Amino acid sequence: MASVYEINKGINRPIEFKGFRAQYVTYLAIGLVLLLLLFAIGYLVGIYPYVLVAGIGGGGFFMISWIYKMSHKYGEYGLMKVSAYRGIPAAIVCKSRKPLLHLNEKGGAK
């Protein structure tokens, strides 16, 4: 039986696939490709296949549940907002008045 998966996307709506929204679909695809490569490398190295399947399966379950949790916690743009918020400094330290004295000369605030 052939399975058909629909990717729901309306007008001006983010892409959604099986509950994963927006950029989380990309994160999921990259993670699955990395797990596939990890399995192939482990198999070529000679790791016992049943151990490899169990490890990759556990890692895949953890990855999917983690991405699903992030998708529902942060939403479409929330993860980008959180990472941008971490880049904001707690304080701006200015030990000299020199930059403030020349604001009017350089076309700054008047």
Show the helix and strand layout.
Elements (H helix, E strand, L loop, with lengths): L15 E2 L2 E2 L1 H23 L3 H26 L3 H9 L11 H4 L9
Helix pairs in contact: 1-2
Structure report:
The structure is a single chain. With 110 residues, this protein is mainly alpha-helical. The chain has one domain (16-101). It contains four helices and two strands, in the order ββαααα. The protein has a two-stranded antiparallel ribbon. A hairpin with a 2-residue loop joins β1 (16-17) and β2. α1 (23-45) runs antiparallel to α2. The longest helix is centred in the middle third of the chain and has 26 residues, at 49-74. The model has no long low-confidence stretch (mean pLDDT 81).
- Helix-strand category: mainly alpha
* Contiguous uncertain segments of 5+ residues: none
Computed over alpha carbons, the radius of gyration is 24 Å
Arrangement of strands in the largest sheet: 1-2
End-to-end distance: 72 Å
Number of DSSP helical runs: 4
| Helix content percent band | 55-70%
Beta percentage is under 5%
Mean pLDDT: 81
The global form is elongated
Number of strands: 2
- The arrangement of helices and strands along the chain is EEHHHH
Number of self-contained structural domains? 1
Largest sheet: 2 strands, antiparallel
